């Protein structure tokens, strides 16, 4: 090709590129199933990821057990963040997780809460007469056989020798945030929730923390769901980044070290 024609062709390419700039990557929609105890933190994470990537995030919040069962039934989730490893184990055994995407993300603590601000602290141990404190009231807990917060709470009470006395007086809720609401509204005088939940509600006081050795470690694993496409991997990367870390720590979660 003569030099003049080559120069003209190159100039045409430049003019075409200027007239028709490259189209940015198309924004995609991501569906995240997350434990109810992550409600406040996920609002910040969702907004941050959307601003950083342009993708749209839909977060479904509920008890980890309910979310896992929905995923097992074929619900269109892209990412799952569970409040305990057990439900993630079940999905992994069923082949419902994308291989190599599971990661331990967060830790939490378990607390006894009382209705109203400024309630006096108590020492949580075998000598705590929780049944007497309840009086005619109820102890609000998430479902003790299904929801992680309820499972952890029951384990702690059993380890301390307190479960038998309070079991008939437990008001079970669908998830930990529902249990929190029972205490916040005064429908129950006491409840067992995560430390992060207690921080999120002005009308309750965390009056004691259950010793870590009384229950299994409270660990939040995250993973992409098998068959998930689009920005699932990018979202998991974002969860491990500094912006998400700041959002989780602001709500009282401990981020699992890399």
User: What gap, in angstroms, lies between the N and C termini?
Assistant: 57 Å
Overall helicity: 25-40%
The fraction of residues in strands falls at 15-25%
Shape: elongated
CATH fold field value of the largest domain: D-Maltodextrin-Binding Protein, domain 2
CATH class of the largest domain: Alpha Beta
Using only C-alpha atoms, the radius of gyration works out to 24 Å
Report the major sheet.
Answer: 6 strands, mixed
What is the oligomer described by this structure?
single chain
What is the number of E strands? Answer: 11
Q: Which residue ranges are poorly predicted, with pLDDT under 50 across at least 5 consecutive positions?
A: 1-24
The tally of structural domains comes to 2
Q: Going across the major beta sheet, what is the strand order?
A: 2-1-3-10-4-11
Order of helices and strands: HEHEHEHEEHEHHEHEHEEHHE
| Overall mean confidence score, pLDDT | 90
Q: How would you explain this protein's 3D organization?
A:
This protein is of the alpha/beta class. It folds into two domains: 29-107 and 218-255, Periplasmic binding protein-like II (D-Maltodextrin-Binding Protein, domain 2); 110-214, 3-Layer(aba) Sandwich (D-Maltodextrin-Binding Protein, domain 2), CATH 3.40.190. It contains eleven helices and eleven strands. The chain has helices at residues 3-19, 39-53, 64-72, 85-93, 130-134, 148-159, 163-166, 176-184, 195-199, 232-239, 242-250; strands at residues 29-35, 56-62, 79-81, 103-107, 110-115, 139-142, 170-173, 190-194, 204-209, 219-224, 254-255. Strands 2-1-3-10-4-11 form a six-stranded mixed sheet. The longest helix has 17 residues, at 3-19. The radius of gyration is 24 Å and the shape is elongated. The chain starts with a helix and ends with a strand.
């Amino acid at each position: 090709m003569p030099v003049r024609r080559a120069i003209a062709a190159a100039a045409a390419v430049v003019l075409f590129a200027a007239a028709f700039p490259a189209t940015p990557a198309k924004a995609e929609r991501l569906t995240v199933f997350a434990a109810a105890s992550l409600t406040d933190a996920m609002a910040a994470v969702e907004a941050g990821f959307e601003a950083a990537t342009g993708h749209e995030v839909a977060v479904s919040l509920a008890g980890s057990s309910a979310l896992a069962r929905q995923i097992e039934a074929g619900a269109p989730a892209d990412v799952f963040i569970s409040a305990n490893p057990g439900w993630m184990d079940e999905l992994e055994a069923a082949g419902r997780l994308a291989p190599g995407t599971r990661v331990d993300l967060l830790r939490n603590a378990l607390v006894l809460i009382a209705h109203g601000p400024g309630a006096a602290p108590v020492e949580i141990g075998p000598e705590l007469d929780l049944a007497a404190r309840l009086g005619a009231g109820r102890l609000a807990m998430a479902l003790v056989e299904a929801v992680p917060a309820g499972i952890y709470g029951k384990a702690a009470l059993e380890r301390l020798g307190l479960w038998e006395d309070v079991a008939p007086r437990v008001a079970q809720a669908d998830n930990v945030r529902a249990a929190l609401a029972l205490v916040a509204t005064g429908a129950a005088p006491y409840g067992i929730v995560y430390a992060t939940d207690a921080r999120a509600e002005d009308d309750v006081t965390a009056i004691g923390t259950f010793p870590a050795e009384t229950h299994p470690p409270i660990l939040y694993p995250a993973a992409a769901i098998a068959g998930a496409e689009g920005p699932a991997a990018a979202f998991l990367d974002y969860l491990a980044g500094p912006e998400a870390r700041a959002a989780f720590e602001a709500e009282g979660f401990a981020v699992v070290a890399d």
